[in-house]
Amino acid sequence: MNQRRLYTEPDPQMVEMLAGMNANADLAVVQRTRRAVLQAATELSEQRSRNRRNTAIAVLTIAVLAMVLTPAIWSTMDDFMVGGDFFEAHSMVTVLILLLFSTVLGALLVGLRDGRSMYHGRR
């Protein structure tokens, strides 16, 4: 059998890179890697900042709604304890306000839960 060997001259740049003698190529790779890591760290920091801000806004909204509705809850409970009628206009409006509050609170909690699952890569 006749075996032939095909031999080509190696690329001198490739030989230098493999031998570790081409510092410019290594420096370029290091700089690209450093830029990519810095960009990823900056994006992660901005995402954490946005998440903290969104959580603070949601908590502040819940606190303000609770503070505004506390007198209405107190008044309604006081009326019911004294023997007030549920079908009075004042009681019905208060109950509707409380239903709206619970709906808004539920929507905020669902929004927070969805935001956290997106932060961890789940949807």
Structure, described:
The protein is mostly helical and 123 residues long. It contains three helices and no strands. The radius of gyration is 33 Å and the shape is rod-shaped. 1% of the residues are buried. The mean pLDDT is 77.
Descriptive labels:
123 residues, mainly alpha, rod-shaped
> What string gives the helices and strands in order?
HHH
What structural category characterises the helix and strand content? mainly alpha
The portion of residues assigned to helices is over 70%
Our count of helices gives 3
Radius of gyration: 33 Å
Q: How big a fraction of the residues is strand?
A: under 5%
Overall 3D shape:
rod-shaped
Distance between termini? 63 Å
- Which parts are unreliable, with pLDDT below 50 for 5 consecutive residues or more? none
* Overall number of strands: 0
Mean pLDDT: 77
